[in-house]
Amino acid sequence: MENQTNQFTPNKFMKTLSIIHLGLISWPTIVAVIVYLNTQSASFNFADTDNMFLVVVPIFALSSVFLGDFIFKQSIKNIPRTSSLKQKLTRFQTASIIKYGLIEAAAFFGVIGYYMTNNLAFLMISVILILYFFMLRPTKEKIMRVLNLKGSDRDQFNRPNQPLE
To answer: What are the φ and ψ backbone dihedral angles of 161, each rounded to 5 degrees?
Structure first.
């Protein structure tokens, strides 16, 4: 008999994706708090036109959000309808990790911009990205909606401890 702990179930999938999401969102959050608490003279400064971060950080943030969303949607759209639920969930997880990674990178970049310049505008961009990232938290309902699970796939996904093949 195969080992029950190594089997892929909807419940294990949800736990794994939630842990990945939590891990990726926690690092920019922790670093932002530490950097903020260790900064002496922070201010909003939009007058320093020589500061390349004033252009690069917002562009990188927006690009990361849009590129992550584009890659995610393309990955989900390209899942064959005949794929098994396990294959669909695996592709969803991969697409989610790419999207999460791009947002995490942009949030970190904003924190670095803040750390180097003490300009709160960069920290605010990071905070907005972290809040957006939080809203991307995986839930069973979101996954069913995004993957458009119907019929037997939906039934399988609603049996959280049933192994998927």
So the answer is: -105, 10
Q: Dig out the tokens for 55 from the structure.
A: 């252009």
CA 112 to chain centre: 19
pLDDT in tens, the chain (165 residues): 445 557 889 999 999 999 999 999 999 999 999 999 998 888 777 676 667 888 899 999 999 999 999 999 999 999 998 999 999 999 999 999 999 999 999 999 999 999 998 899 999 999 999 999 999 999 999 999 999 999 999 999 999 889 987
Delimit the domains of the chain by residue range. Answer: 8-38+61-157
Dmax (CA) of the chain: 68
Instruction: Pull the structure tokens for residue 10.
Output: 């909807």
d(CA 72, CA 74): 6
Cα–Cα distance measured from residue 94 to residue 74, given in angstroms and rounded to the nearest whole number: 12
